[in-house]
């Protein structure tokens, strides 16, 4: 796959405080890349460096092969971005907003404006004033603006903020369509981990300015061992037996089941022990951890943003 964005050993220091510590990740053509981290992790600082709003203290950013520091104009020609909320003129129509933005770019035709309107699905409302748009529609119009210059990389900073569940689902489907059918690379920061798990091909997780993981979502989930659910009777007796075993961890009752962490190769041993103690074992089920479970485990923080 073609490499669209390459971040290597990126650092940022302000005064005596180092905010970003040598983080590295790559984004390839036609993929959706999730960027995750709790409050203060360094997400916004990193995004600002990616779009040239902040200068790195070290490391490199390459966009479509162009170093952002040495070839800024060439690199940014391949980038469309919305940092925080899209800036729109609410008293103008959607089309008029796009026409205003097009004047700042070279070679944007009326045909291109019509094309991006179709891509974001605003054909029926593009001539209505933006003040009548829902938040989801304004978000799509902002993305249409970002797509006018035919970027290869689209950067979206918390695009689901404020959207209702229907709007979030529509955005998720839209972003997947951009990647799969338009061949666009989408870099998206989000605090909605369940959405990222459904939307993204790969993720980077940062915490306190350090990159804890960068790679495929499925590889991360498969790498980490999940818990085991036991349907047993009597429940309380089984709970006490499990807690007494040094190789069984985090034992708790969850909806009339026992949930615990135990190595796969020790499950038959534990099952035999329970049977020998007169415990009836009806089912044993391994549960793969969700991205949210892994995120909290890696960051040690229950504040997700």
From TrEMBL:
Transmembrane segments: none
Keyword entries, A-Z: ATP-binding, Nucleotide-binding, Transport
Stretches assigned to the ABC transporter domain: 5-233
GO MF, one annotated term: ATP binding
Family the entry assigns: Belongs to the ABC transporter superfamily.
Protein name, entry field: ABC transporter ATP-binding protein
InterPro entries hit by this protein: AAA+_ATPase, ABC_transporter-like_ATP-bd, ABC_transporter-like_CS, P-loop_NTPase
């Amino acid at each position: 796959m073609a490499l669209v964005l390459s971040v290597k050993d990126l650092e940022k220091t302000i005064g005596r405080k180092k905010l970003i510590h040598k983080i590295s990740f790559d984004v390839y053509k036609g993929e959706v890349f999730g960027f995750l981290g709790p409050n203060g992790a360094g997400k916004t600082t990193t995004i600002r460096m990616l779009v040239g709003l902040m200068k790195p203290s070290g490391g490199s950013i390459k966009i479509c092969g162009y170093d952002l520091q040495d070839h800024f104009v060439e690199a940014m020609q391949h980038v469309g971005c919305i940092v925080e909320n899209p800036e729109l003129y609410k008293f103008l129509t959607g089309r008029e907003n796009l026409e205003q933005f097009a004047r700042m770019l070279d070679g944007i035709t009326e045909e291109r404006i019509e094309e991006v309107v179709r891509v974001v699905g605003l054909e029926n409302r593009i001539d209505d004033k933006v003040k009548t748009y829902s938040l989801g529609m304004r978000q799509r119009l902002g993305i249409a603006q970002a797509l006018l210059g035919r970027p290869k990389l689209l950067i979206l900073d918390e695009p689901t903020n404020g959207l209702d569940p229907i709007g979030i689902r529509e955005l998720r489907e839209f972003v997947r369509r951009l990647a799969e059918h338009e061949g666009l690379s989408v870099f998206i920061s989000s605090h909605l981990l369940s959405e990222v798990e459904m939307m993204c091909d790969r993720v980077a997780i940062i915490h306190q300015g350090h990159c804890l993981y960068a790679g495929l979502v499925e590889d991360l989930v498969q790498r980490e061992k999940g818990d085991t659910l036991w349907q047993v009777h009597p429940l309380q007796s089984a709970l006490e037996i499990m807690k007494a075993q040094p190789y069984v961890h985090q034992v708790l009752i969850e909806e009339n089941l026992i949930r615990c962490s135990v190595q796969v190769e020790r499950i038959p041993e534990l099952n035999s022990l329970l049977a020998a103690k007169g415990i009836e074992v009806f089912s044993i089920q391994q549960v793969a951890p969700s991205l949210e479970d892994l995120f909290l485990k890696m960051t040690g923080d229950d504040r997700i943003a």
